[in-house]
Amino acid sequence: MRRGRHPRHRFPVGDYGARYNIDLDLITRGSGFGYYGSVLTSVIFTSFTFIFFALEGSIMAQGLRHGLGLPLWLGYLVSTVVIIPLVVYGMKALAKLQTWTNPLWLVLIVAPIGYLVVADPGSVQRFLDHKPGVDAAAVMLGAGVCLSLMAQIGEQIDYLRFMPPKTAANRRSWWISMIAAGPGWVFSGAAKQIIGGYLAVYIVDAVGAAAAVEPIEQFTGALKRMLPVWLVVPLALLLVVLSQVKINVTNAYSGSLAWTNSVTRVRRRYPGRLVFVVVNLAFALILMEADMFSFLNSLLSFYSTCAIAWVVTVATDIMVNKFLLGLSPKQPEFRRGMLYAVNPVGVTTFVASSSISIAIHFGAFGSGLQPFAPVAAMVIALVLTPAMAIATRGGYYLRRTDDGIDEPMLDADGNPSGARFTCQVCEQGYERAGRAGERARWRDLLALPEHRSDRAARVACASTMMDALTGHDLRPRVPCRHLYGGGDRWGFACPR
Fold first, then answer.
1. How much is the average pLDDT of 369-395?
2. Radius of gyration over alpha carbons of the chain, in Å?
3. Exposed (0-12), middle (13-18) or buried (19+): which is 345, by Cβ within 10 Å?
4. Which end of the chain is less packed: N or C, by CB atoms within 10 Å?
């Protein structure tokens, strides 16, 4: 197997997802965690999706209570159920939804802010002068809440993985699109937080501190300055509902994929993605009905330690272990037959980093260090990831380095090869990255007909060979003695 030319990666996680067209779970498998080890991080990501679905759903329920008079418990249910039909059609439908609604959303959110700044320029200075008792501990607690959004990169990659191949002709536009939709979300997220803070300060004297944090109150207060009274609440409600739907369709979709990936690997059964859509939203609904707003800061501060431990470990493995130390294979590998079940580099780092930072969060090392739990998670992951790779000499990344196919994995531009092959067992067409090769000796064991001696007959898809998806292997069974030199057990032909 020829790997091809390896491109340099300036943004390790986003660049990997966009260039190789894979999601964060597949990146994690080959970046220090192994095939089953990445199930740990899939659980972390699923919890991110339903926690933030519950957060956004709570905001939508507040809007429905303000605009339509629905009780919160019913608003929670409505904000959950309306998402299901929007998610079942997959990423192409979601991409269209985002594209079609962006112009209206931008007008509704930019127009009132721009009007307030122009009509009341003193509001900006009042916002800048607002200093509600700040100390180092409060800053770090706030940072912990913000850093919990680090796992958002997983959802961004669910869009980035559909990027076209990067070529000399589209190089500039490719980088602009990747940065804007990937790591650039940090700047748009920060802008939204600043806008929320500005509006909260603007209305706090009128509605009180408790209500000032609710987006429906914020935009109602802003729209009152520029529109007739009868139009204020409908437009504010439209903006809140539209914003939360745009966010939560991605939360629901990405969460269902993460559930599917982790449960299918463990149970070797695939009940369908729709099942996991419902499961993910059920967890979110439970959080909403439990009034998660009352303990939101504590929940996000706790969660941020796990999210940071995971994402920093993966990013460090890519930046340091792959391209600096050369101990990790540069190209992402995610196929079960090529990976160890568990790679101690990522798993040990993640467990140690999250465990120690969680202990700090709950005061095990004193109250003075509690606010610094997210920082501890980041530092431990940064240091321990290369240390574990050096200690293991990079020996647990790949079970083997050759999958039996001579064609290169990458094309001349460093993109995944577009060559397609036909599986000799299931007879379906697959791209190069979804296949594993077979050696001549076990081609004979599979008793291929003489007329199928072409290249297509010499490869089998990863799902067929390694039972990677459903556990129902379609290959003929052969005596193990033909493969391993003795014994009467029957097993599956394996290219190892």
1. 92
2. 25
3. buried
4. C
